[in-house]
Amino acid sequence: MKDTAAPSPQPADAAPAPAVPAPAPARTASPAPARATAPGPGSAPGPAPEAVEASAPAPVLAREAAAVREEGATGRRFGRAALVTAVLTALGALLGLVRDQVIAHLFGAGAESDAFLVSWTVPEVSSTLLIEDAMALILVPAFSLAVARGSVRALLRRTLPALCGVLGCIALLVIAGAPWVVDALAPGLPDHRLAVDCTRATATCVFTFGLVGYFSAALRAHSRFLAPAAIYVAYNTGIVVTMVLLPGALGVRAAAIGVAVGGACMAAIQAPSLWRRVRAAGPALPGARVPGVGVALVAPVIVFALSRQAQVLVERFLAAPLPAGAISHLNYAQKVAQLPMTLSLMLCTVTFPVVARAMGAGDTETARRRVERDLATAAVVVLLGTALVTACAPQIVHILFQRGAFDAADTAATASVMRVYALGLLGQTLVGALVRCYFSAARPLWYPALAMLGGLALTTVSGAALVRVWGVLGIAAANALGISLTAVLLLTGLGGRSVPVRVPHVAAGLAKLTAAALAATAAGRLCAGALPDPYLATAAGALAVAAVFLAAAAALRAPGAVAVLAALPRTARTLTRKLPDAR
Q: What pTM was estimated for this model as a whole?
């Protein structure tokens, strides 16, 4: 089976390396092309456009036409790769909702589900550290350079055995120290023993998620995105099937065992594709050196990833003394609200190896253009989703979760938390997109970690204060405040430290898109509130949100909105034609 989305000389799910421009030819033997301008008073008329075009040397025109065609082909390849990645990620996210629906149906939002969600912290931290952030930020640039130098096998021999040894030891330590882990995460939890049992089962993810993150980074550097995008489909399928097959007497422990099974499925789905890439890798180029992955590079990435994930730990810590169900309401609200953020970062995931190669080659202009386009597109997607989940929060939660042990009171509480939590979604997306820029050059940078620590400090201090006044809503508001501060610090500090993004230009575009999202939220909430049926209300709210957001964004000439409108028919045709060929 191929890893491509469509048969072509370069795989459809491949993001091509940026072309190195050829040196411009000497122009001493031929005059420079004249510029067509309107003649000023007393001046001779300028040459006609036909004369201007004819005065350019044929090789120059041919190169320019080829560059335009190549840029269009590159955009289409990015689009296909991002589309297939988004479809599989969306499917994985939907299966994640199915998983949460099963848990909500079986265990509701009470002491038993709270115990499981404390143990869920282990895979959450492992996922952020080993799959989504740290491992990718360290290894995608390293593998990208190794692919260019032909030293992939050498990098594998140097890093994979050591990684397996370290991860195995950490997993065993977490299993042995599970009682102390639970005490640290949620002191005063009612069912301490159940949380310990679940934590010991989920601790296996430390090892399996590390392999998953390593395999994903290597495949993305080879411009293979299909298997990495399918990991959460395998993960959530493993959890759901395990919960269904195991006897009901195990209770919520079946969900924890399912997490262990799902982690193994994630690694298994990627291993064949990586094995084919390694076998196909040729010998290293003469004099090629293996990219370094030293402590100086790893340390700031680890601190950033842990600080980002620590926001969840702070939330759970502050929510533990609250009435039973507070942790569950936070969890369900986050899972739904984060769907737009996950989809918005798909293009950034696809283009990260390209930005890394461009920065490694010193081509900062290519990196800048790519990053600015990615930020605009990600902001369109996440703000459209933010408007939808804010406008239709009660209806969405009712449709997804209100059955079995999850009652109307849980729906109301979760919807309120989701609306507050959604205020930080743009910040979450910007942090996820911008941090890739900082680490794309594969050099030590402490600024992102310091920015994340600043946001974490604000989350902790404001959460401790607001939880006394607003309870669980105060915790959600503190999360939004902290991550938004981190996003502002990363955006304003980017230009002088990594990719030279035009910060005022990007900020102006984000302000226009935010204004469009506010208008769309008001329209969606008005339409959704007019209908009693949750399904019809959600459909009406979604249509109103989409129409008003895109119309307002286009009227404000916000970046990315026009491109999204123009791309909708094309992406639909591409999905219909190309996705059945993906393997």
A: 0.65
